[in-house]
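Sample entry (151 residues):
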Amino acid sequence: MEYKKNDIKKIGLSCLNLSLRRTGRLVTNYYDLMLKDSGLRITQFTVLLSIAYTKDISITELAKMTDIDRTTLQRSLKILEREKLIKMEKKEIGNVKGLSLTNKGETKLTTGIQLWKIAQDSMKKSLGIVEFEKTLKMLVEVRKVALLQKV
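Predicted structure, serialized as tokens:
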């Protein structure tokens, strides 16, 4: 064995990636629970939100906006389309599909936004507004560093 138990513990306690993934899973579970009455998971909510923000967005544009790889995104979009929350329509130019919300999708998103606001306010209250805003800014910086490190 070329590593020691202490080395493993040190990595577990100091690795940014492990910490972000653990925190991300817990925060995702919290938002999923808070959005439960809308019938949406936080991942679906963010995709619907992004589609609503940019009308008739392409899958490629949506993937860039959400930082979700196209394969994963396409699987999610198929589910949303099957549930009749979104429409995928071929655009006039090339082999590009435009995405938009259906009436059912708009209704679910409206409910989801109300529940998201409650979850968000709860997080702000628990962390304190200053720490909450500092955390968001720090996460933006971490994403920038990760983007710069891409090879």
